[in-house]
Specification:
Layout: H1 3-24, H2 26-29, H3 32-41, E1 49-52, E2 56-57, E3 63-71, E4 78-87, E5 100-105, E6 111-113, E7 116-119, E8 122-125, E9 132-134, E10 139-148, E11 156-164
Antiparallel strand pairs: 1-11, 2-11, 3-10, 4-8, 4-9, 4-11, 5-6, 5-10, 7-8
Length: 165
């Protein structure tokens, strides 16, 4: 084999090897133990269940306080997230975030505004930012204050707790 041929064969082998790794993707490039450890450490991104708490009608006058209480009765710690839904009446009109103000009471006793999402007439508080680890036997207690800003707004206040894992 000539020097030129050996160089071409070596170059071809290198190209095939690089192409094979690129095609296989990053899964082959990472050690399997790192991937397994990372997947075990991550919390589920999607709730596996919801605990629905007693609902109440959205009151058009004044402030309405809602307390979410959930006790972890399992023998292990679990990730939970309190959530408040405000649903529109079946006959309409659909609620928009400008129709109500939702606030959460902090551990220091202050009320802080909670941003609301909206989907087909249902207003909701964010789950991701509300996630917390609740130890075995611990109780979650979250207080919200709902104020109607549009006197024509009507609906139902639906507290619930998202469970992960």
């Amino acid at each position: 084999m000539s020097k030129n041929s050996r160089l071409k064969v070596t170059l071809l082998a290198a190209v095939v090897a690089v192409t094979g790794l690129t095609t296989a993707g990053p899964a082959l490039a990472a050690p399997p133990t790192a991937t397994a450890a990372a997947s075990q450490a991550q919390e589920p991104a999607i709730p596996t269940d919801f605990v629905t708490l007693p609902t109440s009608p959205l009151r058009p006058e004044g402030e309405q306080e809602v307390t979410l209480t959930y006790r972890n009765t399992t023998p292990t710690a679990t990730t939970v997230a309190p959530q408040l839904l405000v649903t529109s009446p079946d006959t309409g009109p659909f609620l928009s975030p400008s129709d109500v103000r939702v606030e959460r009471r902090t551990g220091h006793g202050c009320w802080v505004a909670v941003p609301l999402g909206s989907q087909t007439g249902t207003l909701f508080t964010d789950l991701v930012g509300a996630q917390r680890r609740l130890g075995a036997g611990e109780t979650l207690k979250e207080r919200y204050r709902v104020t109607v800003l549009n006197p024509k707004a009507g609906g139902t206040v639906e507290p619930r707790v998202a469970l992960y894992g």
